[in-house]
Amino acid sequence: MIETLLFLPIALSIVVLVVRNKALNIIVTVSYAAAFMAVSILLYFNPASFTPYFRIDDLNVLFLLVLAVVFLGVAVFLVDYLKNNEAPAKSQSLFTANILVFVASMTGVILSTHLALLWVFVEATTLSSSYLIYFSHSEASLEATWKYLFICSIGIALAFVGIIVLSMGLGDSGSLFFDDLYAGARNITPYWLKLSFPLMLVGFGTKVGFAPVHAWLPDAHSESPSPVSALLSGTLLNAALLGIARINKLMSLAGMRWYADNLLLVIGFISIFVSAVYIINIKNYKRMLAYSSIENMGIIAICLGVGGAGLFAAMLHLAAHSLTKAAFFLTSGNILHRFKSKQIEDVRGLLRSEPATGWLWMLCFAGIVGIPPFPIFLSEFLAAKSMFDAGMFVHMVLFLLLLTINMAGIGKAVLRMSFGASTDGPAAHGAGVLSYLPQFAFLALLLSMGVSMPFFVQALFQKAAALL
Amino acid sequence: MIQFIIILFGLTMLYVSVTTRIESYVKAIAAQGVILFLLVLFDYGTTNLPNLIFLSFETLVVKAIAIPIFLMYVIRKNGIYREIDPYVTNHSSLAITTAIFAAGFYIAYWSAGTVSNIRPFYFGISISTIVTGLFIIISRKKIITHVMGYMMLENGIFLLALSIAREMPFIVAMGVLLDIFIAVYLLGLFINKVQDSYSDTHINTLAKLKD
Asked: A302-327 b/e with 16+ CB inside 10 Å = b?
């Protein structure tokens, strides 16, 4: 089953590139997304492995399911997006093929049981997503793609240095399988392990979008087409984060919990601080969402660093953020389509002029800043509580303060855009129901999770947290 | 002999740090590829034939021939010959690179005192090369120079990988090769695109997106 996830998209992307038919692109994307969802659910009930290199365990099944849900939503949204898009069939086929390979490489990252293989797939995500960011062929998107490609390549090179340094510390066994690393954690030379962790944290952290190595993220997320932004923010950041989570586990098994936790806390707090600084006076609403992704990744890093109940909070936050942010980015695409501007000041009266988009915009805002009953409230509350339990009062106060600043910044922009008299913007674009359905589905899923979490969903998060 | 070859590798980095001619950068990258090939042949001591063939191919064909030819093609096509007006003068650039090498050796010998299984000479030169590559990326303005700084950084990483006296899994080496190859291809392609859009491959033209 795993082989379908890895090989089928490659085959499909070749078919798409050869045939170059607009309708076929849409059919292939949606049906593959549906198949991906079905296979992921089957794998959830029936964990399997495919060669020693790919395996489903309790931790990555959560990441796989999140990827499946977000990808399915984005694929449905793409139906309208590609239909209305005027790019020639050749570009659209290239776009579709890149989406398929991009999803396949993220699946590879998620399922890898081998550190170096995981690294190879992270690099593959960079290469396959660069065309997606450049899709609009504008000068701004060219700049964004260049920064993305270059900064992430350097980051990933540093992560490779980290892997080499780690294997220096391994002694004779030399195996980079996570199982072998975990089993022999105590035998790794501490000197090399301590050197390799920051390198890998910065390296994979570049892809996650941790500040101060986040420079590519606001540009890439704001210049790429909105469905791509949703995929980048909702799935790519998670995939890279899985690498860090796995290394973090190695550190705690090797008895260096304290060292790793503090580095994660530092990088997490820098991330939410940087996003607060930029978000409070933001002018461009897509960049606002990008900074909010940096903030949320920072929150997850802090949760991982605090430990205890924080681990559960980290997994819950990760899933909730992916769905909320994907819905948010897709909605921003609807706004951009109607108002033809990414500036906050150009958009007024969303609730009156386009009620569906306006309500989605408000609900996504409520979801991302954690207004109950959205699950992000629960995860942020749990994060603060685990800091309280650990006696980290200064951290807790700082955490809540920075979250409030972020909330104020996003709230200011979202409320300005939603209320007020509706400006006589360009005529309504008549987007079909498929441009709204995925977002409402994501939000409904989140609400049902927040109001009363089914036991099997809770078990999913608990089992994943137990492996951290 | 091996030490002499590695010293030559370090010298290419010092040479790059003082030159402004873009073609000299390409020559230095080609020289590094040849040096890595010699190291694979004489020092790596692999007993696995496919591995040896693969590594020779990667160093000699890809790093020493294909990538330099491609970079040369990009340079000639776009008429970029000199790194004009870098952020740091040649003189201070050389001083900084020398300082990086000194610090690299210091760390290498200090580490060798702490842990046993490293070869300080290899380790010192390779981490100095990695840091110098980063320094070149930061201190130069042309986009093509950034790409070449990145290639040198990759060469430094390759040297570091060789210094571990253990064979990398074949699949990983494949991945590395593929990544480098595609990265260069894409980066080169982008330079051409940037040239078309902006009429100058200067990093300042790519600084419009900001808050």
From this structure: bbbbbbebbbbbbbbbbbbbbbbbbb
Q: Which chain B residue is nearest to residue A139, measuring alpha carbons? A: B197
Radius of gyration (Cα) for chain B, nearest Å? 18
Query: Is the Cβ pair B115, A124 closer than 8 Å?
Result: no
ipTM of this predicted structure: 0.89
Element (H, E) at A55: strand A54-55
Taking alpha carbons only, the member of A318, A99, A126 closest to residue A216 is A126
CA of residue B2 relative to chain centroid, distance: 19
Interface touch B157/A154, C-beta < 8 Å: no
- Selecting from A116, A123, A218 the residue whose C-beta is nearest the C-beta of B169 gives A116
Q: Do B183 and A153 touch (CB under 8 A)?
A: yes
DSSP B81: -
pLDDT digits (tens, 9 = 90+) for A273-331: 999 999 999 999 999 999 999 999 999 999 999 988 999 999 999 999 999 999 999 99
Q: How far is B211 from chain A (nearest CA, A)?
A: 7
Q: Of B111, B166, B209, which is closest to A140 when you measure between CB atoms?
A: B209
Closest CA to A199 of A234, A169, A219: A169
C-alpha distance from B172 to closest chain A C-alpha (Å): 6
Distance CA A379, CA A316 (A): 6
The answer, yes or no, to whether the previous bond of A212 is cis (omega within 30 of 0) is yes
For residue A360, the surrounding DSSP H or E stretch is: helix A355-369
**Across B144-167, average pLDDT:** 81
